[in-house]
Design a protein that fits this description.
Length: 232
């Protein structure tokens, strides 16, 4: 598990970790031992071994990171989810102030984001060479995005990763809100930042940053910026 190098201008209190996954390796007894009964049942539902590896290794790593921050045994942590399935720590296991977190995995990699100040979202997408980009664009892009000039338009996989990360930071369902959200290349904050626009007038402000990703992948970190600040 490697910590990601993030810009010095990023608000303090946010960390991102990258995991390289061996999808053919046997599952570790040490990882299994950290999971709750519900997580173990969920892992066994995956038919493909690689899917089990992604879930078990990522969840065990998340538990270790949170356990170290909270000074608790990782296996004692309990999670609950909101109506869209985003997990958070149960109140009895949390801290004051709370630690926010989010995870994502694709292909042979996973990302874990932790924040001590505001909700975060993270997403990593594999650039599948045979992906139907045209067809998916009709579902994922807003009308505003389809009219953007080339110099403001974001690569499809970057756009998809950014929308997922932003909606996860907001705690919203991805499928229901993809077309309410527009992602543009920023004119002022540098190449690694995105300009985020949305139709949800009551949504908190959110920032998004392109993460360094392995070749063949796209990854984004997003965080709610109300009361926390944007990139300096």
């Amino acid at each position: 598990m490697q910590p990601q190098r993030l810009p010095d201008s990023l608000p303090a209190g946010i960390d991102v970790f990258q995991l390289a996954l061996d999808l053919d390796a046997p599952l570790s007894d040490a990882d299994w031992a950290l999971l709750s009964e519900e997580e173990g049942v969920r892992a066994l539902r995956f038919l493909r071994h690689g899917d089990k590896v992604r879930f078990v290794v990522t969840r065990a790593a998340l538990r270790r990171l949170l356990g170290a921050r909270l000074r608790r045994r990782p296996q004692t942590l309990r999670f609950v989810t909101n109506s869209y399935g985003k997990p958070r720590l149960e109140a009895a296991c949390s801290s004051n102030p709370a630690i926010f977190f989010n995870v994502s995995h694709a292909g042979s990699f996973a990302l874990i984001a932790l924040s001590e100040r505001a909700p975060v979202g993270v997403d990593i997408e594999r650039r599948h060479p045979h992906c139907d980009v045209v067809g998916l664009s009709l579902q994922a892009l807003s009308a505003f995005e389809r009219q953007l000039p080339d110099d403001r338009r974001v690569d499809f996989f970057e756009c998809w990763a950014t929308k997922e990360a932003v909606l996860k930071a907001l705690g919203l369902g991805v499928a229901e809100h993809l077309q309410q959200l527009s992602v543009l290349r920023s004119e002022s904050a540098g190449d690694s930042c995105y300009d985020i626009r949305h139709d949800g007038m009551d949504w908190p402000r959110v920032n998004a940053l392109r993460l360094d990703s392995p070749p063949g992948y796209a990854a984004t970190l997003a965080w709610q910026s109300d009361g926390m600040g944007e990139l300096r």
